[in-house]
Amino acid sequence: MADEDRSSRTEEATPKRLQQARERGEVAHSQEIQVWATLCGGAIALAMLAPPAADRALRLGLRFLEQPETMHVELSSMRVGFGGVLLEMAVILGPTVLLLGLFGVGCGLAQAGPMWAPERLAPQLSRLSPMKGVERLVSARALIDLMKSVIKLAMVMTVLVLVLRPFAAGIEQWPVLSPVVALGRSNDLLIRIAAAVAAVTTLIAAADYLYQRFSFLARMRMTKQELREEFKEADGDPQIKARIRRLRQERARKRMMAAVPTATVVIANPTHYAVALAYDMAAMPAPKVVAKGVDRVALRIREVAAENNVPVVENPPLARSLHASADIDDEIPPEHYQAVAQVISWVMKSKRERPSP
Asked: Cα(207)–Cα(228) distance, rounded to whole angstroms?
């Protein structure tokens, strides 16, 4: 069933689905990049912050070793001394901790941006289920994570062997070195190790981020039905929209037919087009289209015109041109003034010549 579900999810996730996932705290996130950022921060801290911190820690220790007679064993003095030591340690370790925190937070923001997802903080009983735990352990994702860990461990061990090999020859001399020299060499070795491991994890982190993003987008894929449902929610049900459109068109057609009896003339061709024009020389600067249509609508316009004694003039080219160039309640374009004026003049002349009943 799971394979069938994955095979049916063929559509890319929409921005709305990705935003909903983000609100739940689901984003493409690589833990390897967090590890890489921590290693980079540690390498920088060892190179830039460790020497002065070590020097300060050494001076702090020497003060207790070289001047033991200045120490007081009274409770109040011990409290003051202990507080001073804690403050000094905070000054020594604070910049390193701050740097590592900035690297970690900055890396998280770079991957997903600022995000607030209270659902991730809510307790979930499914996490306490033994069956769910077993499923997670034997899942394909757990197997991939295990393979990644083995490959990463092998690469890191290889790098450590390459970095430590040059120092192995003189390692037996370190116990007899002075503390200052030993600390200097240890710091140099740690910097080399951190830099080498950070360089290796750069490749691992980049590959893992690409995999995590691909996996996340694959999980976010949608079925065609889900895509249709989302479009319905965003734009409304197409059937309801079509019904509303039909109702509007019907109302517009009824208003148009009600205006045909007020027309001065209907210009038509025998079967396809009909355009009803109204013109009042005293009130209108130009004739106005009050109704138009093709085929069945055109036939109905001609029927209504005949029922109300509105003249119908057959002029196929003019009928097609007016239907294409003017909408209902619009004045006719200037290029048709002369042709329409001739038609209206003929209609007016016919009415004058018609004998009174």
From this structure: 34
| Residue range 347-357: mean pLDDT, rounded | 69
Over residues 148-160, the mean pLDDT reads 81
DSSP letters spanning 127-159: GG-HHHHHHHHTSHHHHHHHHHHHHHHHHHHHH
Q: Poorest-confidence range of 65-69, 145-149, 264-268, 302-306? A: 65-69
Domain spans of the chain, in order of start: 2-114+129-232, 248-353
Q: Which two tokens stand for residue 256?
A: 């148009």
Q: What is the pLDDT of residues 48-60, one digit of tens each?
A: 776 676 666 666 6
For domain 248-353, the CATH architecture is 3-Layer(aba) Sandwich (3.40)
CA 214, CA 41: separation in Å to the nearest integer? 27
Residue 339 and residue 318: Cα distance in Å, rounded?
8
Task: State the residue for tokens 């890489």.
Answer: 36
**At 155, is the pLDDT very low, low, confident or very high (cuts 50, 70, 90)?**
confident
The CA-atom distances, in angstroms, between 241 and each of 176, 191, 233 are 88, 67, 12
Task: Please tell me the predicted confidence (pLDDT) of residue 4.
Answer: 46
Place of tokens 């190790």: 193
Handedness of CA 105, 111, 116, 118 (dihedral sign): negative
Q: How much is the pTM?
A: 0.47
Of residues 103, 212, 213, 217, the one with CA closest to residue 148: 212
CB 276 within 8 A of CB 310: yes
pLDDT at 135: 61
